[in-house]
Amino acid sequence: VRFRMNQGSKSASDKMDVSLTVNGVDVLLHVDPRMTLLDALRDIVGLTGTKKGCDQGQCGACTVLVGGRRINSCLSFVVMHEGDDITTIEGLGSLNDLHPMQAAFVKHDGLQCGYCTPGQICSAVGALKELQRGVPSHVTQDINHPDGSDEEIRERMSGNICRCAAYPNIVAAIREVLETEP
């Protein structure tokens, strides 16, 4: 028995239009439906702060915020995000006006080589929003009251790998923002 992949259907190489809001700017992309959000952000939109690490969703270097929630952009097709509001590291702050999490990472030396840092920061921002919404983690003792302990911060950030092992400094940076942000 032979399997015919595209018989009677559109070719997988047909391009599609996708409208997104990226860092507050409306963007219309004409893309192959198989293109990942990561590749669209880097190769079409030109925002190279989001990094391609493992390209398998295991390292977290590609973490961005979609509607305020963190996702691995390497595991998501761009066509799945029609109308979505996407924030990359470039959309959090600028050199002259750092986001509080960016400033805390600098202050606490929460980076070394810097490759994972954009994903770490986006993930940390998303993790704190989860805490603000009362979303428990796997180590939350009282699921009705996530406490933001260091153990909980480490667990929430466990999807982001740092080969340089700056983890204690990353936790300190997140702790600072958690304790100073409303």
Molecular structure report:
With 182 residues, the chain is an alpha+beta fold. It has 6 helices and 5 strands; from the N terminus they run E-E-H-E-E-E-H-H-H-H-H. The protein has helices spanning 37-44, 89-92, 100-107, 117-133, 150-156, 167-180; strands at residues 16-22, 25-31, 63-66, 69-72, 85-87. It has a 5-stranded mixed beta sheet with strand order 2-1-5-3-4, with helices on both faces.
Task: Look at the structure and give the mean pLDDT.
Answer: 92
N- to C-terminal distance? 62 Å
As residue ranges, the low-confidence spans are: 1-9
Radius of gyration over alpha carbons? 18 Å
**What is the string of helix and strand elements?**
EEHEEEHHHHH
Q: State the share of residues found in helices, binned by percent.
A: 25-40%
Form type: globular
Strand arrangement in the largest pleated sheet: 2-1-5-3-4
Query: Helical element count?
Result: 6
- Beta-strand percentage? 5-15%
Based on secondary structure, the structural category is alpha+beta
| Biggest beta sheet summary | 5 strands, mixed
Question: How many E strands?
Answer: 5
